[in-house]
Amino acid sequence: MWFGTWLSALCLATLTLGATKQDKQDDSGSTIKSIALRTHTLQQPYLDSDMQSRWYDFGGDAVVRTDAYIRLTSDRPSQTGSLWSKVPLTATNWEIEVEFKIHGKGSLFGDGFAMWLTKTRAQEGPVFGSIDNFEGLGIFFDTYKNNRPGTVFPYVMAMVGDGQTSYDKNTDGKQQEFAGCSARGMRHSAVPSKFRLTYFQDKELRLELQYKKEDDWILCFETFSPPSIPNVAYLGFTSETGELSDNHDIVSISAKNLYQSNPSSTPGSSRKKRPSPRKKRGSWFWTLGKIVLAVIGVGGAYVGYTAWRTNNARRSRF
């Protein structure tokens, strides 16, 4: 009985140790820690007691509803709205998660909205409400198809601006696209629409979307040769409507500074070297099996030795 109790306790402790180790790893196989960036995070009610935001400026036709959203443009023609951080984002590695909503009454709609990380800020222009020939990164959530055969809209694309290259609206930026994906169902989504942009300098740029099911993140694009983003870049959101229109709402912005517990490994290399779950599980059970067999062997030897001593003791009496 003593041996069985000891064996059960050993197995339970070993399983608990394995679960603890798994809980500390993320999907890439390395531990990623984060610190919230208050300067670039925006949540309800958005405004302070002075009816201003300490960290963001609102511009153009943007409307703030403190219990619901920041509406960059309403479902009306010829509107332009913006939301820009007052201080630049200087973190080397970061993650920005945004909840948004695109909706309207019409069956014809446009044009979409954009997220920016650029050297300049709060300048109105023709590219989703911001200036052309920008320097930095633009993520465009384009809902209206101009001339791009074979592409399903809405379409989400990234463009890296060098300060000289112009965005071609007539072809929906086909020649300027760095990476992108179709996102059918993003407009009028039944669940909260979100995107999550993750950046590790010189290592990784990844964009994930949520619009089909809650907590179901779809990889839009991922590259382990990311573009160079300006060291001093302002975070912004802009939108515009033309003859066609839609409501473009920003519900919340969550920004984090990221760092790895093992700086020598990169997200890409960690993901490539990480064994598959099936291999890890097989290796784990094989190791556990060897431990159990060893314990049984030791226990069997102990029981045999005890029986031998008992028999010898009985013989010596006679």
TrEMBL record:
Biased amino acid composition, Basic residues: 270-281
Membrane-spanning residues: 284-308
Chain spans, region Disordered: 258-281
Key words of the record: Membrane, Signal, Transmembrane, Transmembrane helix
Compartment(s) where it occurs, according to its Swiss-Prot or TrEMBL record: Membrane
GO CC terms, sorted: COPII-coated ER to Golgi transport vesicle; endoplasmic reticulum membrane; endoplasmic reticulum-Golgi intermediate compartment; Golgi membrane
Biological process, per Gene Ontology: endoplasmic reticulum to Golgi vesicle-mediated transport
CDD domains the record matches: lectin_leg-like
Signal peptide annotation: 1-18
Protein name in UniProt: Vesicular integral-membrane protein VIP36
Gene source species: Coniella lustricola
